[in-house]
Write a structure and sequence with these properties.
Structural class: mainly alpha
Radius of gyration: 22 Å
Order of helices and strands: HHHHHHHHHHHHHHHHH
Number of strands: 0
Protein name: Membrane protein
Number of helices: 17
Organism: Neoroseomonas lacus
Shape: globular
Keywords: Membrane, Transmembrane, Transmembrane helix
Strand content: under 5%
Largest sheet: none
Distance between the termini: 41 Å
Helix content: 55-70%
Amino acid sequence: MLATAAHPVFTHVMAALVRLDRDLRVDFVRGLSLWVIFVNHTPGNVIGYLTPRNYTLADASEAFVLLAGYAAGLAYGGVMDRQGWFFAASRVLGRVFTLYVAHIFLLVVFTAQVGLSAARLDAAAYLDELHLDPFATDPYRALFEALLLRYQPSFLNILPMYIAVLAMFAVAMPLIRRPWLMLALSATLWLAARVFDITLPSWRGEDWFFNPLAWQLLFFIGCALGYRPPGGQPLSLPWRRWAGVLCGVVLGCGAVMTVLMYAQWEFTQARLPAFAPFIAAVDKASLHPTRLMTILALTYLIANLVPKDAAWLRGRFAWPFNLMGQQSLPVFCAGIALSFLGRVALEESDGWAMQVAVNVLGTAALVGLALLTAWYGAEKRNGGRRGATAGLPTVTATDRG
């Protein structure tokens, strides 16, 4: 009886907090990517075998960066057109500061979490595996270098790349009005970073796990797709059957390469010796061309085959992912922290009961955080009036970033 009474209230609140005046395809994919990041960062999680990284050369990281660029182009491009580059750039830099604070907070929480677990469970390997051992040997220098983003433990390398790329966007924003020139310059930088192995400096000589000078290309592609020029037409690639077939071929070849790389590597080395070096060279750090082509093929197919007003995007199944996508920063940070807790739990017991508990409770926590953050944002925008969740919250341009 209680569950029956609570269900309409829950669905009403969730439906009210999902902003429907956005492209829900973007929010859904972004939310799904954040959930996949949580799953993939939890070693031993059986659901991880079903996530896209096992069947495509691109994974949630590529989707996250591309859609972050789309949101930036949509939001800050409009601000620039209305209020000028300086004002828009200041808003972008404000977002950069928010991301930096979130990264440092997550660093402190994650380091304390792993360090405490390593001490209590006598699992010093945690520190080495997650590249947190400098905090044991040289903690003050490690903290200083982490503040400079020159030291990035495992799982804490996406936000630094995002921070660097968004800072580049603040400077290059006027180029968004000439998208093909912007993309040409961005592609040139990507190519130079790959060919000449150019990256940003790091503390111990290790390259950035995500090289911002390469990954900026994906971000700026998203910017070009998201920008809406006043009185003009946004950049788009209309549906062509031959292009759709080509995208299918790209995804099919990528699936074969992924299986050969991760599931059948010994077979690849033994039976395909000429092809193995090419597969082994498919790197993530500098955004290998095959990974770039894969995410662009997926984007083209989704953009053209999934209608913007598809009914299922406004259905109950999509609401949790839409909410997570619309509240991406807190959900991402929580997902990283929860993934380590899930790992510790699965190392204690990897039976089906624990698998279900980790995934159900972890997902519920992420959705609950998205609900809370969305509710707080609605209350803030509505001046704290009672019943702010009774109607659809108003969305401003800066909410989309």
